[in-house]
Amino acid sequence: MKNREKRTERRPGTSGSPRSGRPRPGGPAKGEREAGSVAGGRAAAEPAPQRPLIQRVGERPSERVPVILESRGAGDFHLIDSGNALKLEQYGPYRIVRPEAQALWQPSLPPSVWEKVDAVFTGDTDEDGIGRWRFPKEALGETWPLSLLGVDFLGRFTSFRHVGVFPEQIVHWEWMKQQVESAGRPLKVLNLFGYTGVASLVAAAAGAEVTHVDASRKAIGWARENQALSRLERAPIRWICEDAMKFIQREERRGNHYDIILTDPPKFGRGPNGEVWHLFEHLPLMLDVCRELLSPNAVGLVLTAYSIRASFYSIHELMRETMRGAGGVVESGELVIRETGIDAGAVGRALSTSLFSRWVRE
């Protein structure tokens, strides 16, 4: 799987936007956050060290496109309704309303349903903007317990509208869980830009050895809280608070390998020491290094991309070029969540949430 014949030079990253997009507490926006979640960095931006790209040889993997991976909710979550650039969701005991630019249509349910909610995010409606939560019925605590795929964790009302989990990724986590449980051997999972650790905990609960990387100390702290809540304190999880690019390049030099790699990078971010991340500039190298970290019997490499102005074909072709000579198949498309109504039993419209591309061994 390692075609090291030639390397082509790649220009190091440059300094980025002065906006760090740092939410509190550890709840970054998907579009702009730390380079490993996103952190408020130093005033002087420092590019992460980089190595040249490897020029891959061999046949590109076969392809499946377009692939639409659909979730209708799981555990304590489901999408009730959407429309007028908003979405109405159920997270455990709470019904909440948040902005959603993809919801161009009119809501299906009457205003009386939308008005009977526990929390509404208001303020800046931009994906990277800071706002606040309004609680129409009564003041709510900052956190509350949730469960997903057998893992318990904390929901949290963050100033960047997010609540600690991105439920559209359930489809990836279900796939990963099945791979781990059916492997017949302990799989090693690397979770880059791992945020609050729900995916890491799902993998560990299934029997994997997990390395979780995020540049936000608050996100790592939140993930450890979730680990305790899930009673997985003894599970083999390494929590690494570090710039993701620095970490994977060091792992490559050390010769470490993983069977499954999940990566969910922001479009822009800063690492804990001012390292700058720009998705369009640094994604090719990140995938290139991840390719080198895949074990000889690796199961998959999963990429999710939010808030970018690009077709899924952009990351699809990049993934196929990165995985030249590895065999397998690259499948790419969109993650969507299906509306299921108040009782989670209806079949409504599909709400697009993100692009994805994943290489899997057939």
Largest sheet: 8 strands, mixed
Please mark out the parts with pLDDT under 50 across 5 or more consecutive residues, or reply none.
Answer: 1-35, 37-45
Total domains:
1
| Through-space gap between termini | 15 Å
Q: What is the molecular shape? A: globular
How large, in whole angstroms, is the Cα Rg? 20 Å
State the name of the first-level CATH class: Alpha Beta
CATH architecture: 3-Layer(aba) Sandwich
CATH topology, what is it called? Rossmann fold
Helical fraction: 10-25%
Record field, number of beta strands? 20
Descriptive account of the structure:
The chain has 362 residues and is an alpha/beta fold. The protein has one domain (6-74, 146-360): Rossmann fold (3-Layer(aba) Sandwich), CATH 3.40.50.150. Helix content is 21%, strand content 31%. The chain contains seven helices and 20 strands. It has helices at 111-115, 170-182, 198-206, 217-229, 244-254, 279-293, 312-322, and strands spanning 6-8, 46-47, 53-55, 62-71, 77-83, 86-91, 94-99, 119-123, 131-134, 143-148, 151-156, 188-192, 209-214, 237-241, 260-263, 268-270, 275-278, 300-305, 329-338, 350-360. The strands form five sheets. An eight-stranded mixed sheet has the order 4-19-20-18-15-12-13-14, with helices on both faces. A five-stranded mixed sheet has the order 5-6-7-8-9, with no helix packed on it. The protein is globular. It starts with 5 loop residues before the first strand and ends with a strand.
